[in-house]
Amino acid sequence: MKKWFAVIGDPIAHSKSPNMHNAWFNEMDIDAAYIPIHIKSEQLEKAVFSLKTLGASGWNVTIPHKQTIIPFLDELDELAEKMGAVNTVVRQQDGKLKGYNTDGSGFVHSLEEAVGKEHKQRAVLIIGAGGAARGIAFALQQYGYTNITIANRTISKGIEIVNELGEGQAISLKDAEQQLDHFGIIIQSTSAGLANSEFSLPLSLEKLQEGAIVADIVYNPLMTTFLLEAQKKNAKIVNGLGMFVHQGAIAFNYWLGQYPNTNLMIKRLTEELQ
Ligand code: ATR
Question: Which part of the chain is the Shikimate dehydrogenase substrate binding N-terminal domain (predicted)?
Fold first, then answer.
């Protein structure tokens, strides 16, 4: 029987996941389909039941259901449990639904694809303390990055993540700006720089360290104001598209046991977004 997958969210019309996964199915000669389904919050429980009944092999979960879907799943992967958020559901052979989170590991795969794996000892600064920052912090820790600092407008949210991590420190945006030359990897995880965002720079890059790696999780636009500033200072920059493609590739691998071609997909989507 043909396998099928989905992405559920609200809104969902602009998701690039269906095109990406269907292109991979084509490329790899896999007889499967991936469809977007618009699900409002109040329909979530019924939607999960329906996806299960109708035989979906798995699905992605996006805003606003990443946390609220958890009670409707049977099992959680360790990282998803720590993060308190799920973006990928796998229907296992026994029919049970297991939740994973591939957002943070997608970021780390993208970072390491761009700059290699030899920077784990560098001091990392994550700007922002929302859901995306949390996922990235836990994934970085899992992949062996040990020196993590979180800078956020609301410091208490940074402290919360650091406490859950059991290591690292939380500081203000002002302090991060002043101590910027201390950090070798800087990750912008706030909504600053989104095409429709009213604020574009969470902090000044005046004191950026020579040779720093600067990443942004925003991929539309591909070059955020933050990355443009970093580029002017000769930083090695990593845009948000790789994170998107790799979170999908890791999910794909959980579903089908094969890792799709991420390089080709990043090239294709870059052309689309430029
Ligand atoms: P996501 O799930 O995408 O991470 P989120 O949980 O809403 O989204 O988090 C948004 C992040 O952007 C937060 O770190 C937020 O800072 P606060 O925790 O202080 O709210 C940050 N952010 C949003 N607007 C901001 C602004 N104008 N200035 C600085 N930080 C901002």
Answer: 7-89
Mutate to test the pocket of ligand 1, among 177, 189, 191, 225 (most ligand atoms within 8 A of CB): 191
Domain 3-101+242-273 has CATH 3.40.50.10860: yes
Instruction: Give the residue extent of every domain in the chain.
Output: 3-101+242-273, 113-239
Question: Binding site, residues?
Answer: 15-17, 62, 78, 87, 103, 128-132, 152-157, 217, 219, 240, 247
Residue from 153, 154, 204 to probe ligand 1 pocket by mutation (most atoms less than 8 Å from CB): 153
124-127 and 75-76 beta bridge pairing: unpaired
The yes/no answer to whether this complex scores an ipTM above 0.90 is yes
Give 10-residue mean pLDDT values along the chain (274 residues).
95 96 98 98 98 97 97 97 96 97 98 97 97 96 97 97 97 98 97 81 95 96 95 97 98 98 96 91
Q: Domain 113-239: state its class.
A: alpha beta
Strands (E) in 58-133, as ranges, are 58-61, 75-76, 88-91, 97-100, 124-127
Verify whether residue 66 is a known catalytic residue.
Answer: yes
